[in-house]
Amino acid sequence: MELYLAALLALMLVVIVIRIWLKRKSIYTRKGIIDPMKVSIKDIDRMEDGKEFEEYLYRLFLALGYEDAYKTVSSRDFGADLVFTDRDGERNVIQAKRYAESNPVGLSAVQEIYTSMRYYGASKSTVIASSRYTEACEILASCNGVRLIDRSELIDMIDLFKSSQHTQVMDLIEEEPELILDMDEEDSGKAKKIRLSSRKRD
Known about the structure:
The protein is an alpha/beta fold. The chain is built from 7 helices and 7 strands, in the order H-H-H-E-E-E-H-E-H-E-H-H-E-E. It has one domain (25-177): 3-Layer(aba) Sandwich (Trna Endonuclease, Chain: A, domain 1).
């Protein structure tokens, strides 16, 4: 009887592991390549590390038609994970940050991607994160013209891509970075943040 129960328990455990594995692998094609059409924000949250997120973005960019997009060598990426040429013919560098939703991306992301531009001969830089950014990170990005794509915009990208609105996804990726200005108000003497952006939102 004990042997029977042990065998039954082992079989149940194997079935559970296989179900988890199949669910986890559902974002992959039969060839083991990530299919961007199958990826949701929940899949990104479940990714084991940043490498899988980088691979997703790479496959997404290829599917959008950025034919020259390539991933950098991880051991010597000099701060960039992905390089591509936009529709205006300008080279862009991307840093991917797969963080937990509650864990904001800090200053180092902007510092690293901005300094990688010269190495890759890029004129634009972007950080794409599965979370949000610290205020200091946003200010530094504004001062240096670094585009920040946060979780909500990443979700927009995913949804637009899945509904075959590829041009809108590319518009979102290629938007100009936000500009944050501190302006003094004479009435209160307090600094007020003004966010200026070329974003075309409805």
